[in-house]
Amino acid sequence: MRRFSMLQKILWGAVVLAAAGSAVLFQRQPVGQIVINEPFRPEFALADAGGQVRTSAEFAGKHLLVFFGFTNCPDVCPTTLSEVAQVMDDLGADASRVQPIFISVDPERDRRLGLAAYTQTFHPSILGLAGDEASTRAAAKSFKIFYERETDAAAPDGCTLSHSPALYLVGPEGDWLRQFSYGTPAAEILADLQSRL
Predict the structure, then answer these.
(1) From start to end of 119-196, where are the E strands?
(2) Would you call 12 helix, strand, or coil by DSSP?
């Protein structure tokens, strides 16, 4: 009887360990959210509103706050850009050491709708970039983000886009530092930035 009890304990221990391991392996992430475990250097080469190609290399020495979105986004994009605008205002003199960038995942339509006017609505320092499809895909891949066009009869032109909703922080040497999940308050983003400047 005692031997059976010990065997039961061993088996139950194995079951518990297996369940814990599978919970870690199969932990659900929000749609489009990618968990990043290793440092990397995201890059982009995308046109601004004037057609000039802007690259990640030209912002060396500054922290970048990078967000991927589109101008017709009903909630995630305007909410995040409003938080970024608040951060830039609250940085005061240190704002010159940070460059916020909005990368369009719907570049053709966003150029037509006026990407610069859209970003300026939130804050004059936010740089809007909209490349062609290939350069947009390359930037998204480099940042390890997801986006996809979806049919939506209620949306303008009958389509919308699903995309990773995080705000990405890149350091002055071009290294990815962290991402802020959607809904992170401006005060929390500000505190993190100030600890790095």
Answers:
(1) 127-129, 147-151, 159-163, 167-170, 176-180
(2) helix
**What pTM does this model have?**
0.78
Query: What is the DSSP pairing of strand 53-55 with strand 63-69?
Result: unpaired
Is 156 exposed, middle or buried, given 0-12, 13-18 or 19+ CB atoms closer than 10 A?
exposed
**Distance from C-alpha of 165 to C-alpha of 181, rounded to nearest angstrom:** 7
pLDDT over 90 at 4, yes or no: no
CB 58 within 8 A of CB 190: no
3-class DSSP state of 74? coil
Distance of CA 99 to the CA centre of its chain: 15
Dihedral angle computed from the Cα positions of residues 49, 104, 45 and 191, in that order, rounded to the nearest 10 degrees: 100
Q: 105 with 70: CB under 8 angstroms?
A: yes
DSSP 51: S
